[in-house]
Amino acid sequence: MRTHIALCIMLSWPSSTAESAGDPQKTPASATQPAAQTQPAVDSRDLRAGDDENKRYFLIGPGDLTKGPAGGFKLLLVLPGGDGSAEFQPFVKHIYENSMPPGYLIAQLVAPKWSDDQATRLVWPTKLSPWEGMKFSTEEFISAVVDDVKKRCKIDATHIFTLSWSSSGPAAYAASLDEKTQITGSLVAMSVFKPDQLPDLKLGKDKSFYILHSPQDKIPIRFAEAARDQLAAAGAKTKLQTYEGGHGWHGDVYGNIRAGIVWLEQQQAPH
């Protein structure tokens, strides 16, 4: 049985940004990083999708990728919140160790830095919310990472999920709704939902969205409720789960993430 590690990782923003309703596109550079943690004994490869230095990601999972499940590994793409940096790797390793059902790999993307201003205002630019000078969108980055992982091992195409929070939530919604997406389910925590900055919500038909939000969050829960309702109306499968404590990872962090992953898996099961 995996050991549960109690953790409270605060990603709250300074009070000076509270008036922006926690808009992740205006996340300041001083956003709190995860607390220092010991590194779990899990294999992690520091890779570049398509040999592009700007497409850095960590592939986290078993050391031998030739011994995966018969149907292929299930894949969780993690887009960290805050500044999206490599410093989130210890937390993501703990997610692998404490939250993931058997048979998964995690690909943790590292947010590219196109400029100092971009790195603090729009951490994960998308096709419809671009940043001048960016060489690719987050949707293209995700697609490149999935393709790169598929070259290394067999992947179960029905179980390609994302985990995002705070600053990365809008990009995860956008990537899940992209016409050419390979994503089948998304867990979005503590983030905004702005459909005017997203592709047609009807592109989410039959996809799954697990939305995790605290009623005490600086980001009003109406964003999470709107995501649940509007995506469901467009044909997606949605669930909104609340937790106590406000903006940040609080309470049973790994249990909450695992519950979301299990729910996403259930939506992929034959009915």
Q: Can you characterise this structure?
A:
This protein is 25% helix and 20% strand. It is of the alpha/beta class and 271 residues long. Strands 1-2-4-3-5-6-7-8 form an eight-stranded mixed beta sheet, sandwiched between helices. Strand 5, helix 4 (169-176) and strand 6 form a beta-alpha-beta unit. Helix 1 (89-99) packs across helix 6 (253-268) and helix 3 (138-152) crosses helix 4. It starts with 42 loop residues before the first strand and ends with a helix. The model is unreliable at 1-33 (pLDDT under 50).
Summarize, please:
The protein has 271 residues and is an alpha/beta fold.
Give descriptors for this structure.
eight-stranded mixed sheet, alpha/beta, Rossmann fold, disordered N terminus, 8 strands, 271 residues, single chain
The tally of domains stands at 1
Count of alpha and pi helical runs: 6
Q: Would you tell me the structural class of the helices and strands?
A: alpha/beta
**Could you tell me the strand content as a percent range?**
15-25%
Which blocks of ≥5 consecutive residues have pLDDT under 50? 1-33
> What is the ordering of alpha helices and beta strands?
EEEHEHHEHEEHEH
CATH top level? Alpha Beta
Topology diagram in text:
Blueprint: E1 43-48, E2 56-61, E3 73-79, H1 89-99, E4 104-109, H2 116-121, H3 138-152, E5 155-165, H4 169-176, E6 185-189, E7 208-213, H5 222-233, E8 237-242, H6 253-268
Parallel strand pairs: 3-4, 3-5, 5-6, 6-7, 7-8
Antiparallel strand pairs: 1-2, 2-4
